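Quick start: read one record
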Amino acid sequence: MLKKIVRKVFVFGALYFAWACVDQNSDGLSNQPAAKISVLNGRVKFADQATFFETVKSFDGMDSEHQLKWASSLGHNTLQSAIDRYNIGGEDIPKEYQTYSYYGIAQKLFLNDKGFVQIGDDVILYKEQKKYYMTEAEYGALGDPLDIMKSEKQGDYKITVMANQNDDPNARSWNAPTDGNYGDGGDMHEFQLGDGSWRKFTTVFIAHSDFVGWVGLCTADPANLPPYYLFNNDLQLMLKLEGRVSKKKSWSHAAENRDVAWNINFPGLGLNGYDDCGGNQLEYVNINLAKSGSASTGALADYYVSIVPTFQSTGTGSPYLWSGTVTGTVDHTYPGFSMYELTF
């Protein structure tokens, strides 16, 4: 089962590079002095911690094309290239590379194909969820490079693997008030990145009902009942990606690009409102509505999937609630973490 999941992760990781596209005018690293980033014995060497963190910050703001171009310009064999070899060849992923599939894209391109990088005088091996450190001199004296794992200087690189929040195969009930407030029945998953920060994928039903104008009077008793009006109504599924640097901080829009895909079905949905003489009624009913598609979405942005585009209704007051049942999945392809799937 793990092998199957890992293979799926690698495939979607490869697809990310093929379809991610956000306009960028610069790679953000062109002004970095060449002497501060070099390649030594097949591993990338950053002159110091400040250079490393400045590079990561710039790297995160680049699209995949510029990320790959930058890594290629260094000329080292990246961890990503080692992973891709198995994708292209259709081979099973070796156990030693399985955990690497959950690394961030920066790590996959900064690390060489053996998992090494150098920051200042520290040579660092990333392995599983650990980091092993030695000075350049200590590492150079080793007969076997993997003996770095005997070093007493170690650190953690924490990875959280996605698990679906909801595995109920039956249709889930949901609703969305028409005032723009969040509805019930969506899904959510939190996970932690290797740098200790957190991300949260959320699917939220959201709806609006906008007043258009006066239409007429109730034909049954126009003298005693109020006039009725025309309203434009819509229903959307909002796909959110939020982040925070620690659990003590509040959530805000995450500054990463991502790809989203959805395949959802509504066995039944309807809009509750008022008829032209003030009584309650179902303004809109749809049975077995299906929605599927995919898109790339930029950083700091929510993505909205249109479930019901503008639908016009009349009544003595605004329609007040969409509701129904839903099944299906929403997939997020997040840089370096491949596909995260939320299940209705």
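Residues 211 and 231 are 5 Å apart (CA to CA).
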